[in-house]
Input
Amino acid sequence: MEILDLTIKELHEELVAKKISARELADFYLSRMKDYDGDIKSYLKVTEEEAKEMSDKADDTLRQAQGDSMLTGIPGSIKDVIVTKDVISTGGSRILENYIPPYDATVVKKLKEQDYVLLGKNNCDEFAQGSSNENSGFGPTKNPWDLSRVPGGSSGGSAASVAAGLAHFALGTDTGGSVRQPAALCSVVGLKPTYGRVSRYGLMAMASSLDQCGVFARRVDDVEQVLRVIEGEDALDATSSTRPSKFKAFDLAGSLKGIKVGVPKEYFTKGLDETVEKIVKDSISKLEELGAQIKEVSLPNFEYALATYYIIMPAEVSSNMARYEGIRYGKSVATLRQAQGDKEDVMVSLSNHDLEDLYKANRSKFLGDEVKRRIMLGTYVLSAGYYDEYYGKAQKVRQLIRQDFAKAFADVDVIAGPATPTPAFKLGEKTADPLAMYLSDIYTVPANLAGLPAISVPAGFITQRRSSKELAEFRGREKTLTQPDTTLPVGLHLIGNWWEDYKLFEVARLFEAATEIYKEKPSLNE
Amino acid sequence: MKINKKQVKHMAELAKLELTEEEIDKRAKEFSDILSYIEKLDEVDIKDVKPMTQPTHKASAGTAGGTWLPRQDGKGIEPLVNKLREDKVTREQGEEVKKKFVSLAPEHSDEFIETISPLKE
Output
């Protein structure tokens, strides 16, 4: 039995039949994490003790024959911006370096009710802000397929942990593509549900009108199993939908006959890597072979989506980040000074300052560059005299983008295209140019603006010959770096109509069965 | 849009951030680049378009679609609306959780979070 090749359903059957115990399964993953995560750094915290306790509890549940929940004993990892009770949750930020939440996010609570097993907290860009994981306050995650490249972001640690077989599934968050972009760059499945389907309670808020909790797994079916558990209305998130959470199953009976796939003519323009374009076009032909009808559609305002996003998102970031002032929780310069003297002195010396001085000192010292950049940009677009020029205008273009989708979905069932304009780029390649970094989200951002469900599915690989300079540089280093060729994953991005997340699964599942790209695994170094 | 150093300093002040001279120079260039890219939106005709304030609101759903919900009685669809409840304690968290919350503060006593007084003498 090769655990990594089993779906959650198949693993569940093994667990119920007592062919493997939840504890053995947890140990299998914990031992892989010890062997392989040193180079990849997909985890900020490995929760070995919790994993052992939780898997023993899962085994008890299974022994009492109550294991009818698919996720009982299934090991997963959680992005660090999602809070876990009594387990350190930094959100990838130095300002929360010592933060131990006294509560669980709703999604975590729901997983616990099924007796899932927590393996650890995934590395990510600070407060989910970034497209490469290089903005983590604790050092970047690396792409398991090529350690000189980024895994994508901001949920790069979650994507990498699943791609490298260091978790069976992972939860991430997606505000502008932070689940789907790293899923594509790491060759795993990544879903962003319809806005409102999954509770945001306990997700460290980044941009509240765009944020949604998402799921990573190696197989489409596994993503669906996890979504079934975490979805549904929550009194603690007023934007969670009152729609009954019972999913609508779409049984396509092995064929895409009757399914219309829209391909926006605006997608294939300059900026899209030719090799990515070829794989995506081949994938669309594959959907046609499977019985789908391919139709050209138009999203006239597609080219304005990223500019719209880079007004709305920082505006919401600037207000959400106001909470990090180092007074109610997190790191404070006051504590640093206290370490050097006695407490009375500290409070007296602080009292010579304004409260604002303390805010500024804490925020400036403990927040990272990208977070500061977005706070300032957001503050600017919302400031007196500029509101209408930027924020007001962006809200109107956002409306047009939503209407474009509504029109397109009157004609088609899903919209297909690339998940990213290029394969995984090199560490450091885009850090000096924020705008170039932002452009890597160009295909994923529109679904967040409109609130639509979208999924990235492994679609193929690009093989690139390494330059002699690179080979010289990597000589004697890790296995993935010394091969003459590098293999880089490409994702197919499917957007669904509002609330049709389960239709996306059906289409993606048939594509996955026909291509079987999940069988390819990165070769890792011990 | 060109952003100068003075504007960057103003933005930092509003955002309660302190920047070094070097950071100010860097940000001025970055913000100029980003805002120039954003000016793309000037090309869009937004006359008579209602702003979309959040992704579940009826008014912003447009005519052709939106985040609609099926009605419980099966007759058509209805939008997600404001969810309000009575201003009542629904979950007692207890002393232990309260202690945990207070102890998260960098400066605190048994029961209170401590900081500099916002009131000036």
